[in-house]
């Protein structure tokens, strides 16, 4: 099979549609195997072409094409289309205003500008002593036994206390947030369509709780993220209450699964490379590089979704508006 990327249409004015191309196909079970088995499947596909047909849309397989598509602002974040991809038609999921995770263009720029200070590295550093305390407590709970299921005993419970501390939620509400996060994140499951009532109820309860927090912080500011977001202002522009609620949801969605999963992936890598684990113990100053490397080598998020906001021609191939690609 010839390289699809070099295929040129007969006339520049008539690029061939991606839907009409003879492309390799990503197997339905491509991500069901081990890390190495999945990597081998995609390596084999990428040797054949820079693009492959997947269950929904097209997988982009070569580095230069991935970066080109991610830098092209005409390709929009597919997070906003997730309910549609799951076959969900409930207006409660379809008609909600876009969060910072899915916003595009001027709206995204505005939201980023308003919240940048609240999400700065300095603010993250402020929480590091608390992060260490949480990890120490989780390890202390299992250390006496001499063994642990790291995914269940440490990775799973780790993020929620940090998020609660960030938001200013009291310790007695950690379990509430843990349940809400678990249920809200079901939207990413293949079974989401069957769990809509559970997801919706958790979302309603969480939103009501956050609105109450916002109301309290307006009259009683604290040193927490919600207070900072309320105070955020740029040339007279402020976040509305609903935008504040959406921002808190984005923190929970963006900070729970990715954190616990990446921590698990990192431990998995070090189990496979015990000499690197020993080196890190001897030289803890290598921790920042270790974090970067395990995210590169075995990232919890190994792809992302984009959809064409308009007809896009790339490599002499037409991607009609609405086409999904997965770099």
Would you kindly provide a written description of the structure presented here, covering whatever features stand out?
With 327 residues, this protein is α/β, with parallel strands linked by helices. The protein has two domains: 1-74 and 313-327, no CATH class; 88-255, Cytochrome p450, CATH 1.10.630.10. 53% of the residues lie in helices and 7% in strands. It is built from 16 helices and eight strands. It has helices spanning 35-48, 63-71, 82-85, 91-94, 105-115, 121-126, 128-143, 150-155, 159-167, 174-184, 196-219, 225-231, 241-255, 257-272, 274-282, 287-297; strands at residues 16-17, 51-53, 58-60, 75-77, 306-308, 312-314, 317-319, 324-326. Strands 2-3-8-5-4 form a five-stranded mixed β-sheet. It has a three-stranded mixed β-sheet with strand order 1-7-6, with no helix packed on it. The longest helix has 24 residues, at 196-219. The model has no long low-confidence stretch (mean pLDDT 89).
- Main sheet summary: 5 strands, mixed
Shape: globular
CATH-assigned fold name of the largest domain: Cytochrome p450
Quickly give the CATH architecture of the largest domain.
Orthogonal Bundle
What share of residues are in beta strands? Answer: 5-15%
N-to-C SSE series? EHEEHEHHHHHHHHHHHHHHEEEE
Number of E-state strands? 8
Report the helical percentage.
Answer: 40-55%
Number of domains: 2
């Amino acid at each position: 099979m010839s390289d699809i990327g070099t295929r040129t249409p007969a006339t520049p004015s008539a690029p061939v549609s991606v839907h009409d191309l003879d492309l390799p196909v990503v197997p339905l079970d491509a991500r069901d195997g081990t890390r190495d088995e999945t990597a081998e499947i995609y390596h084999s596909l990428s040797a054949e072409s820079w693009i492959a047909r997947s269950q929904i849309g097209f997988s982009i397989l070569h580095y230069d094409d991935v970066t080109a598509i991610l830098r092209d602002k005409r390709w929009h974040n597919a997070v906003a289309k997730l309910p549609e991809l799951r076959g969900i038609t409930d207006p409660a999921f379809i008609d909600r205003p876009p969060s910072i995770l899915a916003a595009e263009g001027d709206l995204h720029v505005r939201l980023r500008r308003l919240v940048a200070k609240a999400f700065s590295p300095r603010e993250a550093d402020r929480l590091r002593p608390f992060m260490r305390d949480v990890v120490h407590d989780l390890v202390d709970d299992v250390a006496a036994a001499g063994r642990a299921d790291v995914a269940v005993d440490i990775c799973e419970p780790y993020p929620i206390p940090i998020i609660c501390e960030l938001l200013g939620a009291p310790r007695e509400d950690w379990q509430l947030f843990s349940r809400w996060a678990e249920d809200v994140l079901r939207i990413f499951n293949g079974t989401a369509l069957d769990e809509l009532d559970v997801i919706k109820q958790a979302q309603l309860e969480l939103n009501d709780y956050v609105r109450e927090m916002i109301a309290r912080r307006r009259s009683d500011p604290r040193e927490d993220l919600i207070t900072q977001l309320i105070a955020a202002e740029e040339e007279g522009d402020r976040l509305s209450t609903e935008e504040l609620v959406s921002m808190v949801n984005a923190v929970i969605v963006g900070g729970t699964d990715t954190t616990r999963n990446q921590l698990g992936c990192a431990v998995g890598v070090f189990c496979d490379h015990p000499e690197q684990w020993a080196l890190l113990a001897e030289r803890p100053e290598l921790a920042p590089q270790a974090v970067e490397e395990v995210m590169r080598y075995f990232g919890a998020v190994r792809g992302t979704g984009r959809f064409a906001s308009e007809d896009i021609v790339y490599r002499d191939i037409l991607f009609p508006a609405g086409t999904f690609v997965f770099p």
